[in-house]
Amino acid sequence: MRVMVLIKATHDTEAGVLPDEKLLTDMGRYNDELVKAGVMLAGEGLHPSSKGVRVRFSGATRTVIDGPFTETKELIAGFWLWQVRSMAEAVEWIKRCPNPTGEAAEIELRQVYEAEDFGPQFTPELREQEESLRAQIAQKA
């Protein structure tokens, strides 16, 4: 199963405060463990929401909203994408994670939908299209 690991933003991450050398070293070591174990598929930190935008959809209307966004507890500062056997395994890995902000932090884990989760409405044609897109993405990586 794939799991998206979401590192919640703090006032410091939203202010653009970068991690110190110790945290970068600790995270580098942790990421190395994840890669060697075959768990980590991707992972990145995100710039503050002041450099982002949101697009609100209402029927056919699209409205662009420039950051920053006010509710820090609702924002994401970084992410990993992991391949694990179970949510319990993901939780065990996250318990070993260095504190990502050095202060009170919160990390959310969410299972990623797989093709089989969509049932019969995900037709053979849609599955073929999905597989073709994934193959194209893999070629560009």
Secondary structure blueprint with pairings:
Blueprint: E1 2-8, H1 11-14, H2 21-36, E2 40-45, E3 53-58, E4 61-66, E5 76-83, H3 87-95, E6 107-111, H4 124-140
Antiparallel strand pairs: 1-5, 1-6, 2-5, 3-4
Q: How many beta-strand elements?
A: 6
Helix/strand structural class: alpha+beta
Overall geometric form: globular
Mean pLDDT: 93
Features:
single chain; 141 residues; alpha+beta; two-stranded antiparallel ribbon
Structure at a glance:
With 141 residues, this protein is α+β, with helices and mostly antiparallel strands.
Can you walk through the features of this model?
This protein has 141 residues and is α+β, with helices and mostly antiparallel strands. 33% of the residues lie in helices and 27% in strands. The strands form 2 sheets. It has a 4-stranded antiparallel β-sheet with strand order 2-5-1-6. A two-stranded antiparallel sheet has the order 3-4. A hairpin with a 2-residue loop joins strand 3 (53-58) and strand 4 (61-66). The longest helix is centred in the last third of the chain and has 17 residues, at 124-140. It is globular. The mean pLDDT is 93.
